[in-house]
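Lab notebook, bench 4. Still working through the backlog of constructs that have no structural model yet. Next entry is a single chain of 150 residues. Request: give me the structure tokens for it.
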Amino acid sequence: MQALDILEEVSIFADLSMDELALIVPLAVMKEGKAGDFLIQEGECVESVYILLAGTATVMKTRTDGKKVAIDEVGKDDLLGEVTFFKNTPASASVQATAPFRALQFNQKEFHRLLDDNPPLGLKIYKKFSRVLSVRIKKRLAQLIEYLPA
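Model written out:
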């Protein structure tokens, strides 16, 4: 399968033209790994954003007592590293594969440069990333409500 065909199958890129996809192809790197591998480590600088093509992973956060707790499960077509993509800070959570995986990896600096140099493309991608963040925030709020006293 060619890189362009792979990008066409990713929901984040669903609204892009073939010309826009062709601009993204050179930035896409295929990353493969096994269960137990970390894509992102909490507290570390995140240089890439990922889109899972196959496999699953757990998003984990370290509590103040040092215990790591699972806060989400991610799988095919999920975006990872989008928070640091916007705010360029160390990772707020870890993402660890729970099965063998394949992911598209995009260097954040190169991706930002492409989007800045192509405002119509940037608008489309930033809107998609914002939707992903919005859905995740709603999901976290729903989880939080379950733990609040009646």
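Notes after review: Residues 3-147 form a domain with the Jelly Rolls fold (CATH 2.60.120.10). The radius of gyration is 16 Å. Flag for follow-up if needed.
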